[in-house]
């Protein structure tokens, strides 16, 4: 695993709309348009039952139309897609053939394994849930600063002592922070300032000045998730990557997960996880199935329910709230609203869960800094949701 400067990492985190703006064109090689022909996913011993679209109440013609649009770059920059229906993998298409600039973070040489960017946050949250299930952490109402052993903090304010783990999980810390107004990597971006001037990002975050009461205002904060990872490691007493391997990846039959590391050797739980698309879909299926994979309760059903509940109310396109590092929203179909929740990562790394349809959809992409990163919402709305109804 590679230790890297987080300045580079955090210039490419999920933007407010999860679409990005401006920046360089997608990278990763030239794609030659081909006529798409659907075939059932292979059974490769990774734990998935596989099946055919036609046998799982899908309009396969609409999915073929979608895949042709992806291959001819009508939907550019998509690297892979997987679809699960009622626990069966019915589509698994690997599109990218070349590595991109982010693979160096974890010395990744496998084109099927992709950086997750901010989808990593939802995995970090699940690890907190497992630690609570196992008794390492009492609950989300534990005091956040008590989860660290630093001797002192800058800008001490008595309200810091009242900040809870839940405040951090829901990004309502109250600290002076703004990683969305100024572009990532520019001198006035708070994430850039923190990463350029510190090696211990948890300590640097906790040293910041409070500007509102913890638990009051939502402010998207990548450093908070990295600090949550440090708090987890402190609580369980073993390296975070070991805890994740034993308690999440091994039960999900995920054998190739990899982390990029922060300068002080902590897995970057905010943006540094690498997974294969079929394994992303397992994580979504785990939540669709109330924390169970292959008959094993990996994380409690209570944690799943709490994680995807809207603790914060938002009013954005396809987005109505924020949970414990999960986004909550809806899709429309024939006048009805269909509940969904999702993970979202910069450049097009998404896991969509649509429980009423028994549906999990995972994407990876290379639309770094491009508005096309948000095209997956249109794909879900115009192709996959209709095809599944």
Question: Could you give a short description of this structure?
Answer:
The protein contains eleven helices and 14 strands.
How much of the sequence is in beta strands? Answer: 15-25%
Q: Give the helix proportion (percent range).
A: 25-40%
Superfamily at the CATH H level? Answer: DD-peptidase/beta-lactamase superfamily
Spatial order of strands in the largest sheet: 1-3-2-14-13-12-11-10-9
CA-based gyration radius = 20 Å
Let me know the number of strands: 14
Instruction: Please give the CATH architecture.
Output: 3-Layer(aba) Sandwich
Category from helices, strands and their pairing = alpha+beta
Reported for the largest beta sheet, the result is: 9 strands, mixed
Distance between the termini: 43 Å
CATH topology: Beta-lactamase
Highest-level CATH class: Alpha Beta
| Number of structural domains | 1
Q: What is the string of helix and strand elements?
A: HEHEEEHHHHHHEEHEEHEEEEEEH
How many H/I helices?
11
- Round the mean pLDDT to the nearest integer and report it: 92
**Poorly predicted tracts of residues:** 1-29
Query: Which shape, going by the Cα principal axes?
Result: globular
Keywords:
389 residues; alpha+beta; 3-stranded antiparallel sheet; single chain; 18% strand; Beta-lactamase; 9-stranded mixed sheet
Write up what this structure looks like.
This protein is an alpha+beta fold and 389 residues long. It has a single domain (6-387), classed as DD-peptidase/beta-lactamase superfamily (Beta-lactamase, 3-Layer(aba) Sandwich), CATH 3.40.710. 28% of the residues lie in helices and 18% in strands. It is built from 11 helices and 14 strands. It has helices spanning 6-10, 60-71, 119-133, 165-169, 190-197, 201-206, 222-236, 240-249, 277-288, 301-307, 375-387, and strands at residues 49-50, 78-85, 88-94, 113-115, 258-259, 273-276, 292-293, 296-297, 312-316, 319-322, 327-333, 336-345, 349-354, 359-365. A 9-stranded mixed sheet has the order 1-3-2-14-13-12-11-10-9. Helix 2 packs antiparallel against helix 11 and helix 3 (119-133) runs parallel beside helix 7 (222-236). The longest helix is centred in the first third of the chain and has 15 residues, at 119-133. The termini are far apart.
């Amino acid at each position: 695993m590679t230790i890297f400067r987080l300045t580079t990492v955090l210039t490419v985190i999920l933007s407010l709309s999860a679409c990005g703006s401006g920046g360089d064109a997608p990278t990763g090689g030239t794609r030659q348009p081909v006529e798409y022909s659907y075939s059932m996913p292979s059974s490769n011993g990774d734990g998935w039952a596989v099946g055919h679209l036609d046998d799982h109440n899908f309009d396969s013609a609409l999915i073929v139309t979608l895949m042709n649009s992806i291959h001819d770059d009508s939907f550019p920059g998509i690297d892979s897609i997987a679809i699960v229906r009622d626990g069966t993998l019915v589509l698994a298409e690997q599109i990218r053939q070349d590595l991109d600039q982010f693979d160096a973070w974890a010395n990744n040489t496998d084109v099927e394994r992709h950086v997750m960017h901010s989808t990593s946050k939802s995995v970090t949250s699940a690890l907190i849930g497992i630690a609570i299930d196992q008794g390492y952490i009492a609950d989300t109402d534990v005091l956040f600063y008590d989860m660290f052993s630093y001797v002192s903090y800058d800008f001490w304010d008595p309200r810091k002592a009242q900040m809870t783990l839940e405040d951090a999980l829901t990004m309502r810390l109250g600290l002076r922070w703004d990683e969305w107004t100024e572009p990532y990597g520019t001198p006035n971006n708070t994430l850039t300032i923190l990463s350029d001037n510190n090696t211990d990002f948890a300590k640097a975050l906790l040293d910041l000045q409070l500007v509102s009461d913890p638990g009051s205002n939502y402010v998207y904060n990548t450093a908070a998730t990295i600090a949550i990872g440090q708090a987890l490691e402190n609580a369980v007493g073993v390296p975070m990557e070991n805890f994740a391997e034993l308690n999440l990846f091994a039960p999900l039959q995920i054998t190739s997960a990899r982390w990029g590391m922060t300068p002080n050797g902590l897995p970057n739980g905010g943006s540094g996880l690498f997974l294969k698309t079929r394994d992303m879909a397992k994580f979504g299926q785990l939540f669709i199935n109330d924390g169970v994979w292959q008959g094993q309760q990996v994380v409690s059903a209570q944690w799943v329910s709490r994680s995807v509940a809207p603790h914060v109310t938002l009013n954005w396109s396809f987005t109505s709230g924020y949970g414990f590092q999960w986004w909550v929203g809806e899709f429309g179909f024939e006048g009805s609203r269909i509940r969904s929740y999702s993970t979202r990562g910069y450049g097009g790394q998404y896991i969509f869960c649509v429980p009423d349809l028994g549906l999990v959809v995972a994407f990876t992409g290379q639309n770094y800094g491009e508005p096309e990163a948000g095209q997956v919402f249109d794909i879900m709305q115009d192709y996959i949701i209709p095809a599944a109804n």
